[in-house]
Design a protein that fits this description.
Layout lengths: L4 H10 L4 E4 L6 H8 L6 E9 L2 E8 L2 E3 L1 H8 L4 E2 L27 E5 L7 E5 L5 E6 H7 L4 E3 L2 E3 L6
Parallel strand pairs: 2-7, 3-6, 6-9
Antiparallel strand pairs: 1-8, 2-3, 2-5, 4-10, 7-8
Length: 161
């Protein structure tokens, strides 16, 4: 698989400037950052959550973890981690575990952690496990203009940039 069609359309419609970064196959975000030789704080990962009202996405640096209590306060919802297998139908054009952060393009409410806004540039999954999109933070924030910004993530203990 290559870049998801939904992401490609989103990038095109926003007139985004970006580059594609190829890297060896990786399974999870910190492995991806290492394989691509990029700082983990600049790699945006997408965490999928759910409650009785449906699914939401949280976008945060790969070196951070979602603080569910803070996100629950922000959203007023009792969110918990979603099972990726339940979301395969929604993200048909993405490999499991390689969902790009533009979840609003998939009709999903999306929350962007403020810590990403302070990075000079951002990388994120293109929809597979071998390509990343790289763009300036201004381009990323324009792409994520429909996401709600909040502070809901904390650096993982012992995690280096």
């Amino acid at each position: 698989m290559s870049m998801s069609a939904t992401l490609e359309e989103c990038l095109r419609s926003k007139g985004s400037r970006y580059e594609i970064v190829h890297h060896p196959y990786s399974h999870y975000s910190m492995e991806t950052a290492a394989a691509a030789h990029i700082p983990g704080d600049r790699l945006a990962k997408t965490v999928l959550l759910e409650d009785e009202h449906g699914y939401v996405a949280a976008v945060l640096p790969s070196t951070y973890a979602v603080q569910l209590s803070e996100l629950r306060t922000t959203t007023g919802r009792q969110l918990s981690l979603a099972a990726e297998v339940d979301l395969r139908e929604l993200f048909k054009d993405c490999d499991a575990g390689a969902v790009p952060p533009v979840c609003t393009a998939y009709g999903m409410r999306t929350y962007l952690d403020e810590s990403l806004t302070r990075q000079p540039d951002i990388y994120f999954e293109a929809g597979d496990h071998e390509e990343l999109i790289h763009m300036g933070t201004d381009q990323f924030l324009a792409l994520m203009d429909r996401a709600e910004r909040a502070s809901f993530a904390r650096r993982i203990q012992g995690m280096t940039v």
